[in-house]
Amino acid sequence: MKRLVCAQVLAIIRLEMRKTFFARRGLWVYLLAFAPELLFMGHVAFAPHQRRQLERIAREHPVSSEAMQAVQPGMTLDQVREKLGKPYHGWRGHDPDDRDEQSGWTHLKYTDGKTDLHLVFQNGNLVQIHRNEMDTPPQISRIFAGVFQSYYLRLAIFFGCVGIFVNLFRGEMLDKSLHFYLLTPVRREVLLAGKYAAGLLATVVIFTTSTALQWLTLFWWQSGRATLAGPEWGQFGSYLAVTALACVGYGSVFLAVGLLFRNPIIPTAIVLVWEGVNPFLPAVLKKISMIYYLQSLCPVAAAPDPDMPPLIHLLISPVQPATEVTAVLSIVILTAVVLVIAARLSRKMEINYSTD
Amino acid sequence: MSDDRILLDNVSRFYGEVLGVNRVTLSIPPGITSLVGPNGSGKTTLMNLMTGLVRPSRGRISVLGVDPSKPQKLFHFVGYSTQFDAFPKGLTGFQFIYSFLRLSGYSSAECKRLTTQAIEQVGLGEAADRKVAAYSKGMRQRIRLAQAIAHDPRVLVLDEPLNGLDPLVRSETIALFRRYAAEGRHVVVSSHVLHEVDMISDQVVLMSGGYVVAEGQIRGVRSEIQEERPMQFLIRCRQPGLLASKAFEHDHVVEAKILPEGEGVLVTTRDADRFCRALNHLALAGMDIEGVVPADDNVRSVYEYLIGSEEASK
Description:
- The structure holds two protein chains of two kinds.
- Chain A has helices at residues 2-22, 27-60, 65-70, 77-84, 137-175, 179-182, 188-222, 232-260, 265-276, 283-286, 290-297, 310-315, 324-346, and strands at 89-92, 105-111, 115-122, 125-133.
- Chain A is an alpha+beta fold.
- Chain A is elongated and about 85 Å long.
- Chain A starts with a helix and ends in a 10-residue tail after the last helix.
- The model of chain A has no long low-confidence stretch (mean pLDDT 86).
- Chain B contains twelve helices and 13 strands.
- In chain B, α3 crosses α4 and α4 (108-121) crosses α5 (137-149).
- The longest helix of chain B is centred in the middle third of the chain and has 16 residues, at 167-182.
- Chain B starts with 5 loop residues before the first strand and ends with a helix.
- Chains A and B meet through α1 and α6 of A and α2 and α3 of B.
């Protein structure tokens, strides 16, 4: 019996492969998945030019790294100038007619060739320090974490799963070809399991490949092979696991949506809004979502930059992250519950194309 | 539950407030059973109910003792060719049959053998490796039929299986149905083409507005309504006038019409059996009777009487 079920699941996966991987109407899933890779490749291509430019500026306006490190908020404009000398670039904010440096906003920029230091003064006092460190692993980790949590998890994987999993049932109802499955000696539950496995295979392959490529692009091409020996490998594994878990969780939800709803747009929008407002929800409600657990599993907090707008900061930082075990178990349990409910309801599934 | 019949016990199916079928009770024996009725009469709903594609709102169904809500059992011995003219994208005819056969649990080699056999049976051998999307309507009809018969089912349910087929393939397909029926299997077909239904059916189920209007062997159905619709016989003979006058001696004969150009006499009677006996006596008494043919003992006539002449002429 188990052998028959396995054979049936494999047969369903084979039938679905063409649709999940190679459907013309599914090309946008690849675009969503690999858009960050294009972004990072552009970044990698531009970075050497930016680095050379900073090195040239550092030669023309030399500043020591130690002096740059010594700058603290609250210092006056004169103290900073005394310590660091003449900036390579400076400008006044807001009011161009105001010639008094001790009032309004003043911006100064320094570089030692590795770090681009941007200082912001208000009424002659240093109020903001932006350090743009070029190519350091922590900096790259933060960039990756930001893109991964704000775009990749919330949009790319989310909508990718919508595109693939919803179509597994709903697409065939619209194509009027679902009945061929229902005319075979396959339990509805097995059909559901097979389709879920097919969708999972496709999304995991597409999105983990993209995650891996993004990571390797940033760390390998930009930082060089030496970085790969560092602790970043652990993060790399974590991101792949989070990507796969996101596919597991969102996949089950959207498979059920495609099975149960004639118009999947409304439930999808509801899930999107629910996941989107998650950071603003009370702690108990926050835990009834995928994104909370997925973000808890991410190895790097995504918004260390204090100057990031508060809303974005809130969106990508879980307030009280769940432990790894809790997060993984919660996603697995949520997935299992959704699939069991969908399997039970699939027994009542009927072919009535005229109303679909 | 009978293990050799398709049983429907007081089955109703509603789509919201729209009636699909209502209070259908049938016991379908092996052989070719035709579902006949106008569009919207409930034929397809009845087939979908038998195969579990839709569930009854009321009543019980059993196909050779198996509840259609258990596809894992049902489709080991049931094949259903639907009217839906859509296929999974990108598959060739061979891949289409083969892929769905794999779901039955056959080995790859067995699936290939069964697929080849089914495709040959419907005469699509040369087109097997072409994409189904490039098939003509008739070829798509045949590949659906091939899919339904590929696992050699004991029950074959076919929704308008002869639509779009050319005359040669049509006769081959009918021969296939007959072979299945001769082997003691169930072949349930729906059709609009009444003369074909007449030709192939062992029994018919006449449907209208979601109700079963009549069921059984066509002659049985015809004789049941002979009180309201007297039967007609066309008698060829050399003395039509004499035959007509002799026929009027019997009280069950309501009309005797002499046809022009020696075609014979069309006799209408309320009691077919007594009339046939009377004809025998006339023949024995020396009347030269060349032939007797029931003139309205067919599906078209029964359909016309029970459902309406307008639909029958479609």
